[in-house]
Design goal:
The protein has a domain of about 50 residues. The protein contains 4 helices and no strands. It is elongated, with a radius of gyration of 18 Å.
C-alpha cells in the first residue's frame, strides 16, 4: 500500500472509497494543518514551475489559488482581505505587467 503522508483535498477520501480501496486518514490540529498547507503550497508551486504547457500551468495555478484562499483563513482573514492587500500594494508599487527587469541601482 503506497504511503503518502500529505494533505489532500476534502473529497479525496470519497474518491478513494468509491474505488473500493482502503485508506487511512487523520484530522490535523491547527498548528500541523498550517504546516501541511505550507508544504502543499510549495509542492504545487514546484508542479507549476515544471508544467509542460499552458493547460497544466493553469491547473497548478488553480491549486495554488485554492491554497492561498485556505491559508488566508489560517491567518484569521478571508480571500477578500488578501485581494484588498494585493490591490493596495498594486496601487502603491504597481503590478508586474510591464515586464520591468531591474538590473542595478546606483548607491
Amino acid at each position: 500500500m503506497p504511503v503518502y503522508n500529505k494533505l489532500v483535498r476534502d473529497k479525496i477520501p470519497d474518491i478513494i472509497r468509491n474505488d473500493n480501496k482502503k485508506f487511512t486518514t487523520k484530522i490535523l490540529d491547527e498548528k500541523q494543518y498550517t504546516i501541511e498547507l505550507k508544504k502543499k503550497l510549495k509542492e504545487e508551486l514546484e508542479e507549476y514551475l515544471l508544467a509542460s504547457d499552458d493547460f497544466e500551468a493553469l491547473g497548478e495555478l488553480a491549486d495554488i489559488l485554492e491554497l492561498i484562499r485556505t491559508l488566508s483563513e489560517t491567518h484569521g482573514e478571508n480571500f477578500a482581505k488578501v485581494e484588498q492587500v494585493r490591490q493596495e500594494k498594486a496601487k502603491k508599487r504597481g503590478g508586474f505587467k510591464e515586464r520591468i527587469f531591474l538590473i542595478e541601482v546606483e548607491d
